[in-house]
Amino acid sequence: MPLSKVTLFWSNMANPAIRDKVVCVKKIHTDAQIADIFTKPLFGEKLRLFTAQMLGHLPRVHEDGSTINMDYQPLMENMKREVCIKPAYQKILKNLPP
């Protein structure tokens, strides 16, 4: 029986990363699962909370007390703003009329 893509992912990538403590897998209760905003319609307080967390206005707090601050704005303000255009696109842009 051929192995599924999920099985191959877990055996080749995820398990070694977990074993070597590169990543940490945590159970997240459904009331704190911010990814729900992508999988189903949300309303009211849950929608406001998850939106604020995704925009970085509120930190995420897990059941174990650990906090994830998703406010990347200060980091982004200090980043260099460089435009990188692939060579294939540069050829196209040169041929466009002004």
How would you describe this protein?
By secondary structure, the chain is mainly alpha-helical. It has a domain at 5-72. Helix content is 46%, strand content 4%. It contains five helices and two strands. The protein has helices spanning 5-19, 36-39, 44-54, 73-78, 87-95, and strands at residues 60-61, 67-68. A two-stranded antiparallel ribbon has the order 1-2. Strand 1 and strand 2 form a beta hairpin. It is extended, with a radius of gyration of 21 Å.
What's the total number of strands? 2
| Biggest sheet architecture | 2 strands, antiparallel
Helix content range: 40-55%
| Oligomer category | single chain
What is the CA-based Rg, rounded? 21 Å
Count of discrete alpha- or pi-helical segments spanning 4 or more residues: 5
> What is the N-to-C order of secondary-structure elements (H for helix, E for strand)?
HHHEEHH
Looking at the structure, what is the overall shape?
extended
Q: Regions with pLDDT < 50 over 5+ consecutive residues?
A: none
Share of β-strand residues: under 5%
Q: What is the structural class?
A: mainly alpha
Sequence of strands across the biggest β-sheet: 1-2
What is the arithmetic mean of pLDDT? 76
Instruction: Kindly report how far apart the N and C termini lie.
Output: 59 Å
Descriptive tags:
single chain, 98 residues, mainly alpha, two-stranded antiparallel ribbon, 46% helix
Question: What's the topology here?
Answer:
Elements: H1 5-19, H2 36-39, H3 44-54, E1 60-61, E2 67-68, H4 73-78, H5 87-95
Antiparallel strand pairs: 1-2
